Amino acid sequence: MLGLPSTTEVGRRLPKEALYRNLKLSPKQKDAFVHGVERIVILNSIKEGTIHIPAGREVEEIVVVGIELRDEGAAQTVVDEIAKANKHKLVFLCQVPTGRASLAVRAQGVKFGPWSQPDQLVLRIQGDTLDDVWDAIVSQVAFGDTGMTSMSVEERLVLTEKIAALEKLVRELDTKCRKAKQIGKKNELFAQMRKAEAELEQARKELV
Q: Are 69 and 144 contained in the same domain?
């Protein structure tokens, strides 16, 4: 699965009840586990003993968690809560009854890749240490490449967060500008929006 070596396969099921009982969940979050999840399985363990790539300074093991969902809408909540409660470097393979699947990683929050057919999802193992392997996996999920750019994965993640914040700011300023009645206030908001748009355009260029 995911094109990973057979030596990494684990296939150990995690009882979801035991999992969510140990998490501090709101009623809505608990409902996502109870009604949105079919089962949770540890699919792969990527470590020196399974792929013969030495541990790095920060990464000793990467765990791939398979989550079979009854409802695609539960994916974000379930992945967020599992990620927050676990210190491992985690990759999530989320699948729904419609046949669609998506990968997600915990890296400066949780980043989801696009939803597609499971057989289209492949993770390439690349790098001299597990630090490198993890960076490559994060890049594959978050950006669709293996991170072979002049910018580090951390820098790219920070930049994507900045872009998301600027996109939100532009939308908010646009709404306020349209609703403003006073010409002076409308002009002020318009100028702020144009400034945010310029910063957004520059950030997008830097990410390419």
A: yes
